[in-house]
Amino acid sequence: MIKIESIGLFRLRNSEHHQFMSDLDAQIVKYSPTELGIESEHAEFSHSLGVVENAMRMELGSSKSKHIEQLDLLRDRTWNAINQKVSATLLSPIADEVASAEVIMRIMDSFGDIRGLSYNEESTDMANLIITLMQRPNATHLQKIGITTWVAEMKKQNDDFQTTFNERNDEYAGRESGDVRLTRKVIDPIYNRIVEKINASIVLGVSKPSVEPFVNGLNEKINYYKATIAIRDGRSKGKDKESTDTATPQN
């Protein structure tokens, strides 16, 4: 008598778990929830699978994350270039340039090195620094040092960063929980109910003809993941043994 084989879902990695559940959903749709006798369970399962997928995307991060890192690096470099140019101008042989550099350096020092702050703090402090540097009394000082266009570019970079950062936050706000482990705890019991109900229909002899090919197809996937887990366990044990052998003193 065929039946759906057991598998320790907890041993699957998140990506494996998601793929397995997605494959199961496709199989159910292929053979019809009605034919399999799991209409209500499948509706609940499909909803939970959507939550898992949202959590997976949340956990993997936004497509904007890498761009945000690049924008942050860009504004940090510009801040550093300005700081270095002002420091170098302090050594200028031209007294007026030194005087201007002293004024701008006092402003820079009052804000400190903002590159190590959190994204939000750095954005705020950089915006305030730029506002101060671009005040009318400082325009001549920026020109003498040669950083007028640099400060303007740093403003543009900081604005670009904040816009992209806010877009990512809006993207996150529209998603459900990003806790994949928690969503797995919701969908796994539904999976178990589906298995129990289909297996019970087989035992009671009330299953429809489509159940057999469905079960055979699902068992192939289950055996595949069991083999994957076994291979991973074998590698893990091998590494543990190697570590133990290496740590054991030789006589």
In brief, what are we looking at here?
This protein has 251 residues and is an all-alpha fold.
Verbal overview:
- This protein has 251 residues and is an all-alpha fold.
- 78% of the residues lie in helices and 0% in strands.
- The protein has 10 helices and no strands.
- The protein has helices spanning 14-31, 33-36, 39-60, 65-89, 95-111, 119-133, 139-145, 148-173, 180-203, 211-247.
- α1 runs antiparallel to α3 (39-60), α1 packs antiparallel against α10 (211-247) and α4 runs antiparallel to α8 (148-173).
- The longest helix has 37 residues, at 211-247.
- The radius of gyration is 31 Å and the shape is rod-shaped.
- The relative contact order is 0.16.
- The model is unreliable at 246-251 (pLDDT under 50).
Supply database-style keywords.
single chain; 251 residues; mainly alpha; 78% helix; disordered C terminus
Taking pLDDT < 50 over at least 5 consecutive residues as the criterion, the unreliable ranges are: 246-251
Q: Note the quaternary state here.
A: single chain
Cα(first) to Cα(last) distance is: 57 Å
Q: Which percent range describes the beta-strand content? A: under 5%
Number of strands: 0
Strand count, sense and closure of the main sheet?
Answer: none
Mean pLDDT score, rounded?
A: 88
Order of H and E elements: HHHHHHHHHH
Tally of helical segments: 10
Give the proportion of residues in helices.
Answer: over 70%
Label the overall shape.
rod-shaped
Overall radius of gyration: 31 Å
By secondary-structure content and strand pairing, the structural class works out as mainly alpha
